[in-house]
Design a protein that fits this description.
By secondary structure, this protein is an alpha+beta fold. It has an 8-stranded mixed β-sheet with strand order 1-2-3-4-5-6-8-7, sandwiched between helices. About 25% of the residues lie in helices and about 30% in strands.
């Protein structure tokens, strides 16, 4: 499954993406905001991540922007278990609205292609920018604040829970390519 937005292309990761993935994600500031990525992040970690099987209801995408020199990997986004939104961006892509733009595309996929009724998300308390992205996407805080394991931090951090009801207003279908 692929998705295109005005500025981005979302597609599955391929083995040949491993070096560019390492370049984009291997920043301590990025990995410390994630639950499953190790620190330091090395080529073997990228290769193992890209080799993981993907289920039909577990879309996992790399995010590419379209710059004059060609597509550049700027982050990743996925629906874990088909219902939990997770995403990250390389520091050079922060503050450009990419997470919100990619999030809207994945929410449309969840709503229209997967038939999801509700999505969940969490962000670490010390990453309020992620909370702002979730709010722009229509997520509401659940009031839950709980420890969340983080391989990059090497210890749990407090995370705030969010949810998004997809059964309300249905958006126009998004163009998908399989």
């Amino acid at each position: 499954m692929f998705a295109r937005t005005e500025r981005l292309m979302l597609r599955p990761g391929w083995p040949e993406d491993a070096p560019e993935l390492v370049h984009a994600i291997s920043h301590e500031d990025v990995v410390a905001r994630l639950a499953r990525a190790p620190w330091p992040y090395a080529l073997g970690d990228a290769q193992a991540f890209l080799a993981q099987p993907r289920g039909a209801h577990d879309p996992r995408f790399l995010i590419f922007d379209n710059i004059a020199a060609g597509p550049r990997l700027v982050g990743g986004i996925e629906l874990v278990g088909g219902e939990e939104l997770g995403y990250w961006l390389a520091p050079f892509a922060w503050g450009r609205g990419y997470a919100t733009e990619a999030g809207r595309a994945v929410i449309d996929i969840a709503r229209h292609a997967l038939g999801a009724r509700r999505l969940y998300a969490r962000h670490f308390v010390d990453n309020p920018a992620s909370g702002r992205v979730l709010a722009k996407l229509g997520f509401c805080a659940t009031g839950e604040i709980a420890p969340l394991a983080s391989r990059g931090r090497r210890e749990p951090g407090l995370a705030i829970g969010y949810e998004l009801d997809l059964e309300g207003e249905r958006a126009a279908p998004v163009a998908l390519a399989a």
